[in-house]
């Protein structure tokens, strides 16, 4: 069915343009979600409370760290960590507070999905802590019901008993399941340069480094150079430095007990730039596991 030029003009005059078959689809006037605005609001939240930055980073990681490459389930893509069903998973203790503090930002930018917002919070926190710029792409679509929540047990436990069991857990049950290798496990663990363990969340206590709001390769240097001993207390098994102020989880200490992990710890302890570039690549991979059709957007 083809209209000649004259018929086409007649059709336009008759107001029938929309049914002319060769008319192009009308451009969409729906506003692009304001990702830059959302990022600025997240940055503002962190600037006002720098110790909350690491908690947001942990939120981003736990929202992504449920991915299973075999079944292609889990991952950050559907924003499911906001559901009580997922927040009550053992590993997510304390993250209800982080979800609650992101809520007003979602209310301010409702067209940015929760899934995008949580991962954006992670990369914003890394940058705010002086870390590398991590690539971030938009387009995650929130699940509307908790049906997409994956079973509890996909996030790492900090202690599986013997060091070899903890190492096997990190490798086979958690990080290889997501598609990471040993080098990436050690690079990602460097995030523990930031933040604290909270007795009312995980039960563990204290910061890993003396500068918990600044990302450096200090975590690796402390692991290698301090004499870590068992902390004597009523809480779960953790290690402390001679001052008693810094801590390591059994899953951190495993990174110097296992020879393969240890070689990467040494590598990053010597070279902060290499840590930053490996960390940025691994974190972008993490936050995009299982996500489809992501697109680069302007964040400036
Ligand atoms: C290797 C396995 C890991 C284990 C067993 C582990 C375990 C933990 C535990 C028990 C806490 C304390 C939570 C609390 O009490 O508030 C914590 C905090 C944290 N984790 Fe991990 N983690 C692991 C890997 C990672 C990764 C891959 C990242 C990010 C790339 C990460 C980032 C953080 C951050 C930033 C905090 C501090 C949170 C805060 O200050 O509120 N962790 N982790």
Automatic annotation (TrEMBL):
Highest taxon in the source lineage: Eukaryota
Sorted UniProt keywords: Heme, Iron, Metal-binding, Mitochondrion, Oxidoreductase, Peroxidase, Signal, Transit peptide
Any one GO biological process: cellular response to oxidative stress
Recorded GO MF terms: cytochrome-c peroxidase activity; heme binding; metal ion binding
Annotated InterPro entries: Ccp1-like, Haem_peroxidase, Haem_peroxidase_sf, Peroxidase_I, Peroxidases_AS, Peroxidases_heam-ligand_BS
First-listed, main subcellular location of the protein, grouped into a coarse class: mitochondrion
EC number: 1.11.1.5
Cellular component, GO annotation: mitochondrial intermembrane space; mitochondrial matrix
Domain spans labelled Plant heme peroxidase family profile: 95-300
Compartments where found: Mitochondrion intermembrane space; Mitochondrion matrix
Catalytic activity: 2 Fe(II)-[cytochrome c] + H2O2 + 2 H(+) = 2 Fe(III)-[cytochrome c] + 2 H2O
Family: Belongs to the peroxidase family.
Identification of the protein by name: Cytochrome c peroxidase, mitochondrial
């Amino acid at each position: 069915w083809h209209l000649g030029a004259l018929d086409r003009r007649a059709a336009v005059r008759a107001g029938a343009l929309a049914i002319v078959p060769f008319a192009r689809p009308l451009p969409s006037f729906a506003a692009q979600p304001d990702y830059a605005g959302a990022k600025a609001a997240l940055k503002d939240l962190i600037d006002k409370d720098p110790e909350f930055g690491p908690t947001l980073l942990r939120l981003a990681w736990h929202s992504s760290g449920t991915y299973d490459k075999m079944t292609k389930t889990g991952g950050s893509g559907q924003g499911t960590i906001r559901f009580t069903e997922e927040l009550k998973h053992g590993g997510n203790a304390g993250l209800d507070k982080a979800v609650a503090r992101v809520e007003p930002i979602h209310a301010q930018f409702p067209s940015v999905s929760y899934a995008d917002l949580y991962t954006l919070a992670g990369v914003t926190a890394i940058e705010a802590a002086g870390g590398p710029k991590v690539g971030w792409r938009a387009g995650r679509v929130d699940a509307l019901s908790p049906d997409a929540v994956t079973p509890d047990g996909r996030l790492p436990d900090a202690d599986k008993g013997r060091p070899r069991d903890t190492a096997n857990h990190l490798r086979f049950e958690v990080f290889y399941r997501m598609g990471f290798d040993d080098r990436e496990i050690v690079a990602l663990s460097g995030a523990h340069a930031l933040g604290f363990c909270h007795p009312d969340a995980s039960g563990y206590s204290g910061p890993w480094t003396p500068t918990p709001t600044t990302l450096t390769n200090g975590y690796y240097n402390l692991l290698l150079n301090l004499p870590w001993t068992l902390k004597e207390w009523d809480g779960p098994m953790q290690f402390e430095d001679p001052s008693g102020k810094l801590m390591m989880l059994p899953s951190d200490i495993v990174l110097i007990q296992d020879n393969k992990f240890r070689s990467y710890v040494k590598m990053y302890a010597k070279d902060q730039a290499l840590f930053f570039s490996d960390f940025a690549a691994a974190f972008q991979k993490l936050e995009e596991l299982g996500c489809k059709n992501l697109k680069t957007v302007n964040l400036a």
